[in-house]
Write the structure tokens for this entry.
Amino acid sequence: MIRTEKLSKEYNGFAAVQDVSLQVRPNEIYGFLGPNGAGKTTTILMLLGIVKPTHGRVLLFDQPLAEDYFGIKRRIGVVAEHQFFYDEMTARDYLRFFAELYDVANAANRIETLLETVDLRAFGNARARDFSRGMQQKLGLARALLHDPELLILDEPVSALDPHGVLDIRHLLLEQARAGKTIFISSHILSEVEQTADRVGIMHRGRLVAEDSLANLRRRLHPQLDLEVELDHAHPQLAEQLAQLPFVDEALSQGHKLLLKVDGHSDHRRAISQAITSAGALILEMRSKEMSLEEAFVTITEQNVSLLTDGATGEE
Amino acid sequence: MTEMLLNGNSRARWRAVRLIQQRELRTMLFGFGLYVVIALGLMAAILLLRNYLNFVQESGLLVMSGAFNFPLFAVIFLAAIYLAVSSVTTIARERDQGTMEVLFYGPVDSISYVLGKYLAQMATYLFMLLVFALCFGLFAGLTNFSFPGNVGWVVLLSILVVSDVVAFSIFLSAQSSSVRTALLLFLSILLGLMLIQFGREILSAIPVTGRYYNPMLFMQNVLVNLNSVARWVSPFSYLMQGMEAVRRGSMDVYALLAATSVLFSLLFLGLSVVLLERKGVRR
């Protein structure tokens, strides 16, 4: 759906984006992450043909934008971080203008449906420029969805929204994904991406340093799995016994609890349960603690870890 | 050619041109500025015609030809200045406000954008011409001054000249990031042209003495040459030369001026597209 090949952009000798080769597959939600100034927005602008790359190329729907500029643009919906409106236009006028630009069939109905979807129907005749930032963000999203695009490119779509708004937009995006849309979402709200994205790409200092599913990223960054086992009562010797098992790297006893670090490449919970029950203890609860996207992001960006070579985790 | 006109990309481009043009035209027609300029133009025309009437009354003339020439030039000049200011700010303002970037997320490219802006300004000029024509018709009825038979040629040339002014102003706007920069650029060029014109006149009045090469003579020569160049660069000079050609009935000169005007517009519209692509649509 989106493919970039060694995409680079330099501004007066400063490399804003360097050799970014990413791939977004059809029907997936792709989270595009990175700290401020990592080159996310520049990359998005290059995808849209608004900024010309210094090197490399972009393929959208397997073809360069120049090959079918208008055709490709009509298949994409875009929401930028900041929304801009014409002074004189109401929310309805704004959507009507873009509906005509995209040649949307049955535009009047589509506009009302979308205003309803983003909860702005009551404000349809108010001037869009006077809206709060959250409302403007919602109107921008309605504009992006007007022509029912196959690909949605969203740059920080929930940054200005309140928790209700975030939830609404999350549901809307998941609904779009279920309807077969491909979603490319750039965000610094990692918890949001964690809950929606199938795969993520992480940008750092202009380079794409990781691209994988969240589960694979966790596995590659943190090969151990932390397990916390709550027992019926304290069993001080049990930790020593479990530490003898080949897949247990570390075992600690803390009162009624056992804290284990086990090999994360396969699931050893059944074997651990058997070992505990055969030692005469009763398991009340077993929890695995996974690395959050936030932890993965911090590890990658602060320690300069690159996870782009298949299966290898190395420091730059 | 037919295939090019009918394919999806061309249709999408023309849709973008039409929408950009309509929005811009609506903004101008519902704006205050347009009607102030029309009112000022008509006031100037009335003032000039009143002077002619007084002159006719005092001198006892029975026939006066060309009474509408100067008032016509005055309203065209005012309209062109208004459209120049409007065109020079149009792209810069949208780039500054960010609305231009949003348009380019969708099916809008540099060609459709520049063309949409240009056509909106030209449609505004045609609207102004219509208002002026109605009012001048009324003045003719009230004063008994007649329109010269060749007024149509002057009006036609004025459309080409205003097209040059608009194309050149859009070119300036395409390379400016803010309205202020665009206006400063426009005023600097206007001032430069005026300096050349008046500088030449002032310096040519100063006698050059001495047998050896004089710096004053050098300056006079420089300004004379610059002035000759400005005559081919300034659209208003085309209008004045064209009116003179119509008056004399030199249609070959008129045709040359018209053709040059068309090329001028095409050149600057093309350059605006190239510049917009190089400069980008972002603030």
In short: The radius of gyration of chain A is 24 Å. DSSP finds eleven helices and 16 strands in chain A.
